[in-house]
Design goal:
This protein is of the alpha+beta class and 66 residues long. The protein contains 2 helices and 2 strands; from the N terminus they run H-E-E-H. It has one domain.
Length: 66
């Protein structure tokens, strides 16, 4: 797969993600993402966000492989 094609697709995906964030879509705060706050300590685990990103990346790479 040509490197230029991969770079264009990655750039378009980043631009789309940036547009979603700019429009106010709560990426990174989906149901299933865990946040634990105890006093001055906070711990965040973006479980659902990571699974969703993994699925989207897998689909894009499968489509590019064809």
């Amino acid at each position: 797969m040509p490197l230029g094609k991969v770079m264009v697709v990655v750039g378009l995906l980043l631009a789309a993600l940036g547009a979603l964030v700019w429009l106010g879509v709560p990426i990174g705060r989906l149901p299933g993402d865990f946040l634990v706050k105890r006093g001055a300590f906070s711990f965040y685990v973006p479980l659902t966000t990571c699974v969703l990103a993994s699925v989207l990346i897998s689909v894009v790479l499968a489509l590019l492989k064809r």
